[in-house]
Amino acid sequence: ISSQAQLVYSQNIVGYANIPTPTSGSQYLIAVPFQVGVSNGANEVFGSTLPDFSTLLIWSTAANTYSLYYADSGSPSGWDDGNFAPVSSPVLPVGQGFFLSPAGDKLTNTFVGTIAVSVGTSNVMSLPTAGAQYLVSSVVPYAGSLADGSDSGGGPNLNGLPDFSTVLIWSPTANNYTLYYTDSSSPTLWDDGNFGPIDAPTVSVGEGFFVSPSASAAWTTGL
Q1: Which of 49, 87, 161, 165 has an alpha carbon within 20 to 30 A of 132's alpha carbon?
Q2: How many CB atoms lie within 10 A of CB 217?
Q3: In a 3-state reduction of DSSP, which class is residue 42?
Q4: 41/39 Cα distance (integer angstroms)
Q5: CA quadruple 176, 65, 95, 74: dihedral, nearest 10
Q6: 8 A C-beta contact, residue 126 and residue 4
C-alpha cells in the first residue's frame, strides 16, 4: 500500500458516507473511509454500482507510478487491467487514496463499513522515505483541517511533519493540485507554493491527498 499504518478496528462503530463523483471522465481523488467486507476489495466496496469502463488509478510509492484498473461487468472478477485482461479485484485499504474516473454522470458512491479506530485511540501512519510521494487519506471519516487532530481525537494532524514536507490537494474541477508546505516558522505553520503563510489544507470525508515528507516521519489520527 502507499503507506504503513497501525490500524485498530472498532468492533461496534459502523458508518456510511456518500461521496459524489458527478462528472463522467473527471478524475476524483477519493478514499474508502471504512473497513468493508473481508478485504476492502473494489468488488466489496463498489459492488456493481460503477458503470463499465470506469477507471481506478492506484498509486505505488515504491514504483512511483499508478496501476490502472477498469470496471467491467463482463470480467470474471468485475475488473480488467490496463490491457482489458481480467484481473483480481484491486484492494482499497483504509488510509489509502486513489483516483476514480466514472464512466457515467451523477454517480454517488455510498461506502458502508466499520470505522478503523476505536474511540480514544489513535492510528500512527509511517512515512519512512524522505521525498517519496505517499497517496493517503484520513483513517477515520473526517472533514476539516489537516492540523486539528490529536492522539485521542479531532481527526488527523500533519503539523508535526518536518519542515518543508509537502501536501498536494487535488481539485477535479481545476484538474490540478494545490501545493502546501509545512513550515514551523510560518504564523500558521503552513506555506503556499510561493512560501507565503496560508491556512492548513482541508479535506472532505473520503478525500485522498499526497504527502511527501522532507525526512522520515509519521502522522497520527485520533478519534
Answers
A1: 87
A2: 21
A3: helix
A4: 5
A5: 100
A6: yes
| Residue 117: HSE in the Cβ half-sphere, 13 Å Cα cutoff | 28
Q: Of the candidates 28, 24, 22, 55, which has an alpha carbon nearest to the alpha carbon of residue 172?
A: 28
pLDDT tens readout for residues 65-106: 999 999 999 999 999 999 999 999 999 999 999 999 999 999
Residue corresponding to grid cell 487535488: 170
Cell of 205: 470525508
pLDDT of residue 80: 98
Q: How crowded is residue 19: how many other Cβ atoms within 10 Å of its Cβ?
A: 19
* More confidently predicted of 220 and 167: 167
The candidate with the shortest Cα–Cα distance to 214, out of 169, 178, 160, 174, is: 160
Q: How many CA atoms lie within 13 A of 26 on its CB side?
A: 18
- Grid cell in block for residue 157: 494532524
Name the H helices within the chain: 42-46
Q: Which three cell numbers stand for residue 171?
A: 481539485
The per-residue pLDDT for range 10-34, each reduced to its tens digit, is: 456 788 899 999 999 999 999 999 9
Q: What is the dihedral of CA 219, 113, 8, 130, to 10 degrees?
A: -30
Q: What is the pLDDT of residues 37-61, one digit of tens each?
A: 899 999 999 998 999 999 999 999 9
**pLDDT above 90 for 110:** yes
**Among 159, 199, 204, CA closest to 182:** 159
